[in-house]
């Protein structure tokens, strides 16, 4: 099968029952993506597929022929970190770090959904005038569990990046209106 992983075409042979998670970890040596439960319950295996976050343990690699997969390694690397990776460092958003790659990738996907005005279960309305509150972040990140309970700092890290995005979009709207 042929996958586009972190911008590079990768061709691999694997049993058709191989999950995307196992394909990444065991066939492509991308071990940043973690296996917590292997049952879709912890979010440690979160990756972006064509920009949308999914649990890679719940999908077969063969279903993603030609898809663009982004793992935590594809977001940034030492010396050139993604703003979300940088923010997790700045806000001390982890303890053991096992859930962290999934948290970071999920947060990037979540802020993309936020930018597109997707409402959540706790959103007060559907008109897009939403505030990225702690409650919104917690709800939207509820598929990513942290056994160390680093949640307050995780939320701080995400809110910080989200606020920067809000400011940028407000500036763009002002420029467009001028
Ligand atoms: S390893 Fe996929 S959700 Fe837990
Ligand atoms: S930092 Fe340990 S599981 Fe989240």
A few lines on this structure:
The protein is α+β, with helices and mostly antiparallel strands. The protein contains six helices and five strands; from the N terminus they run E-E-H-E-E-E-H-H-H-H-H.
Could you characterize the architecture of this molecule?
- It is a single chain.
- By secondary structure, the chain is an alpha+beta fold.
- The chain has two domains: about 70 residues, Beta-grasp domain (Ubiquitin-like (UB roll)), CATH 3.10.20; about 100 residues, Orthogonal Bundle (DNA polymerase, domain 1), CATH 1.10.150.120.
- The chain has six helices and five strands; from the N terminus they run ββαβββααααα.
- It has a five-stranded mixed β-sheet with strand order 2-1-5-3-4.
- The relative contact order is 0.14.
- One FE2/S2 (inorganic) cluster (FES) binds next to loops.
């Amino acid at each position: 099968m042929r996958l586009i992983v972190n911008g590079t075409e990768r061709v691999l042979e694997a049993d058709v029952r191989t999950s995307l998670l196992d394909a990444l970890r065991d066939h492509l040596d991308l071990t940043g993506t973690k296996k917590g439960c292997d049952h879709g319950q912890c979010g440690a295996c979160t990756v972006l597929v064509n920009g949308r976050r999914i649990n890679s343990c719940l999908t077969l690699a063969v279903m993603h022929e030609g898809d663009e997969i982004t793992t935590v390694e594809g977001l940034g690397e030492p010396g050139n970190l993604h703003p979300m990776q940088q923010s997790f460092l700045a806000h001390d958003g982890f303890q053991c770090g096992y859930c962290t790659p999934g948290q970071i990738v999920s947060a990037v996907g979540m802020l993309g959904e936020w930018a597109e005005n997707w409402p959540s279960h706790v959103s007060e309305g559907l008109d897009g005038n939403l505030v990225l509150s702690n409650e919104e972040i917690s709800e939207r990140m509820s598929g990513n569990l942290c056994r160390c309970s680093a949640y307050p700092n995780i939320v701080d890290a995400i809110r910080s990046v989200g606020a920067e995005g809000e400011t940028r979009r407000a500036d763009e709207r002002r420029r467009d209106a001028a």
